[in-house]
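Query structure, 240 tokens:
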């Protein structure tokens, strides 16, 4: 029986979460929140590595991030669909892990699995709260859905950015656990090549988002709902 988590990040493949929101998970764990990851597939169609290797790398990365629960849904890599069967699989995981907040991939992406995973998991989070929906587990619906914006090239302004300056080195350590995928490469997933080593490119991207909130490193997020502010006097980020 999986332990209930406060914050759950869902990715299509092992390593997606580390790249897009690993620093946020590390920070949440340091703040005392219970964190979890669901990898929808084992990455079995990837050009590099093997499913067995990636499973070992995912476990190592989870330890590096202080993640309490990491589960693989066992869905087919390269063949994700927002179907009844796949929604039911994700619904049962959401009901088992019972997260308050869920981080999903951005709804637009060059990898079909990333785009479909976003829609599939958003729908599953809603359906998981229906008591009469036919799936295992007790009804549960997360209260907040966040979309990870990292590495976007289209002009989408983040709703907010999480300061991961103190967590960036640990994030990079977690990413480096995927040696079979990233050592010696210059691109990955949604990250287009610029000629830089991948690890340097991750640093550059996170530094860019950090600069938007006047700090060293950040991870960007979008929400469809407007974010509420209760005290405009103490709001962060200098305007001038």
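Result returned for the query:
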């Amino acid at each position: 029986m999986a332990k209930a988590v406060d914050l759950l990040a869902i990715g299509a493949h092992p390593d997606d979460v580390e790249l897009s929101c690993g620093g946020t998970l590390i920070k949440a764990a340091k703040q005392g929140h219970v964190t979890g990851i669901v990898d929808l597939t084992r990455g079995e169609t990837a050009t590099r590595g093997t499913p067995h290797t990636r499973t070992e790398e995912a476990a190592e990365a989870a330890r590096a991030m202080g993640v309490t629960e990491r589960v693989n849904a066992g869905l087919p890599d390269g063949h994700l669909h927002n179907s009844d069967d796949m929604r039911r699989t994700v619904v049962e995981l959401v009901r088992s892990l019972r997260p308050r907040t869920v981080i999903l991939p951005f709804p637009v992406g060059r990898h079909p699995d990333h785009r479909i995973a976003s829609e599939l998991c958003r729908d599953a989070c809603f359906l998981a709260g229906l008591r009469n929906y036919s799936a295992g587990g007790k009804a549960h619906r997360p209260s907040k859905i966040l979309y990870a914006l990292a590495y976007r090239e289209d002009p989408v302004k983040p709703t907010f950015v999480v300061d991961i300056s103190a967590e960036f080195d640990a994030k990079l350590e977690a990413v480096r656990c995927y040696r079979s995928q990233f050592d010696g490469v210059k691109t990955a997933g949604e990250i287009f090549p610029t000629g830089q080593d991948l690890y340097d490119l991750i640093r550059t991207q996170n530094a860019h988002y950090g600069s938007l909130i006047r700090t060293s490193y950040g991870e960007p997020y979008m929400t469809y709902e407007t974010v509420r502010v209760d005290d405009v006097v103490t709001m962060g980020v200098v305007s001038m």
